Please model this.
Amino acid sequence: MRIRTKIGALICAAALAFTSSISVSAVIIPGEDEINQLMLSRSYNVYNSATGSFLRSYSISASSSGNQNGDEIMGVIGSDTRVVDFTKSGVVKLLEDTNGDGIADDYCGTGFVIGNHTIATAGHVARYHNIVSARLFNSNGTVSLTATAVEKHIPQKYISTNSYNYDYALITIHENLHSYRMFNLGVFLDGGVNANTSISVTGFPHALGQNGTNVVNTFTQNTMCTGTGIMTNDISSIVYPGEDETYNPANDPKNWQVAYTADTSGGQSGSPVYVTTSYGGNVYYTVIAIHTHVLHDNAGTKMTSELLAFYKNNSGNLNW
Model:
């Protein structure tokens, strides 16, 4: 398995750590030209985050710089081993307006900071909720900042197909989130899944426990949790929740999904799925997928060159 990471001296150090931590055969730090040569053209719609009104659309190309229910289903495998963990300050709790008055009154999922004014999350979280703000936390669990959501960018392919392959989105934020940036983005180069690689998923589950009886997150109750597990490569035998059919590789020609055993539950859609590495006395968190749904194992949309370019190379389309 080879992993590509974004540009930057700090990220180069994190990439070097992969060679000893997860046995990658090579790590390449790409420039924009290299990313563009690998990526496919994709188009995106931009909406007002709070109201959902359409604003514009745009495409990112190689030459340019069904309603899913996974978020409502428990993904606890065996006993629930998640722990309370507020140390990941870059993980945010997304708040929505359900009454149409522009005021947040419920929470709808998880996201994570990837830029000074940008948050990554799942496509279905952005599409089906009027996201008003993002709540960020101190390490002791107190609220550090409630940031204002401005726009949400959603792949047109997700809107037209509801496919998990395109279940990702971006939310722009008015406030500067520079001090909360802690996640790098990593891309698989060979399309393979390295089974047994240790991963973590951090987010805001509605409830813990095998039967989801221990409620830990509501609009007013805040509990950030981290679950750990391993990546798996048996996605071909996985059954979609609520559907009488197995995973069809023909619907995932680029292997755009990743499965893993870390526990999740409703409220964690949009959580970062990441590997932890150490290098030079520093700890790095590199996101390899965005948690989106529950299969036999839990699963997410894999970080690919297309997603990397979407999140990092379209700053001209981001308004705040």
Summary: The first strand starts at residue 3 and ends at 5. The chain has five helices and 20 strands.
